[in-house]
What we know:
The protein is 47% helix and 13% strand. By secondary structure, the protein is α+β, with helices and mostly antiparallel strands.
Amino acid sequence: MFIKFAAKELKLGSLPSIHLVGHEEDSKQAFGHSKGHDISVRITGRHPIDTMRTLAHELLHYKQTVLGRKGETFKEDEANALAGRIMRKFDTEHPEVRSEEHTSELQ
């Protein structure tokens, strides 16, 4: 549900490969990272809302890659700002997802 919501908000024409991983599988990375058309987001030990925000952030990096945007600081600032906006809108439209029992809402 959330990935489709974020993709629509970002006006993505396609989706990257998204890997939801545990601590062991992603120990070298922070909470998420994107490289080309692949996104990995760590989900273990995190609240679903935090994971969704990371997904929104990394989906924006994917869009930036597709559009050929440059400038590391600009890209991070844009990703942080838009991820926050997407989360506020998602929270308004889907308040039921606030509880930790809704990890299935990511897909």
